[in-house]
Design brief:
Rossmann fold, 8 helices, 21% strand, alpha/beta, Arc Repressor Mutant, subunit A, five-stranded parallel sheet
Length: 231
């Protein structure tokens, strides 16, 4: 049974979702206190976190950022506003998916299963590409022997690029791979993910050697470059 942690100040929603998700073999623990997020993750060891944006004391963006500093656990963010700015900011903070309120509970189930499949999909277990080593079972990518600290979406994107060097991927290609849908509203989020990856693997993110921008078309990984990681 999958285990999920809901962080949302709407206790009624927590009760409704708890009963509904049980039908799909998903155990839900919840809290209305965002400040308890890290403690509850340590206590319940959930497979993923469902996190509301608008909460008292701490908003979801702060909570997401705090979780990302300690955990790689998948995060689905919820927002009553559903604005593209919130979606982009949520992804920039390290969220893996985003659902606008109100939503159908069945959609949440589908998103949970889709996200968990991406997280647990083993694919090709081990392979190397240039200075990178990919361990798909452990979902780790090393660079020059150092394991990179990547969110799930960053891992998926970098693995996609590494698996097909010198191949041009448009933003829509990347979106389809990461989300399984074509949603142009999220195209800006791809640029954010690319920027985050460059800061983690490029010696100079402003002059990238590995992940190249093909203006007006998309991105590609170019092998044969070996910058050293900055301290």
């Amino acid at each position: 049974m999958l285990k999920a942690l809901l962080i949302d100040d709407d206790a009624k929603l927590a009760n409704l979702l708890g009963n509904y998700l049980t039908k799909f073999e998903i155990e839900l623990n919840s809290t209305t206190e965002p400040t308890r997020a890290l403690d509850l993750i340590a206590e319940h060891q959930p497979d993923l976190v469902i996190l509301d944006v608008m909460m008292p004391k701490m908003d979801g963006f702060e909570v997401c950022s705090g979780i990302r500093k300690k955990h790689k656990i998948p995060i689905i963010m919820l927002s009553a506003r559903g604005e593209s700015f919130d979606r982009i900011k949520g992804l920039d903070m390290g969220a893996d998916d985003y659902i606008a309120k109100p939503f159908e509970p069945r959609e949440l189930v589908a998103r949970i299963h889709s996200l968990f499949r991406r997280v647990t999909d083993q694919g090709e277990a081990h392979y190397r590409q240039d200075v990178f080593a990919v361990n798909a079972i452990r979902r780790e990518i090393s660079m020059d022997g150092q394991i990179l600290s990547l969110t799930n979406m960053e891992f998926e994107l970098l693995e996609l690029l590494l698996a097909s060097p010198s191949t041009l991927f448009s933003r829509d290609d990347i979106l389809k791979h990461l989300r399984g849908i074509e949603a142009k509203i999220f195209s800006r989020s791809i640029d954010i993910l690319i920027s985050r990856l460059r800061h983690k693997i490029e010696a100079n993110p402003k002059e990238p050697k590995f992940i190249k921008t093909i203006w007006g078309k998309g991105y590609m990984f170019l092998p044969g470059n070996k910058p050293t990681l900055e301290a």
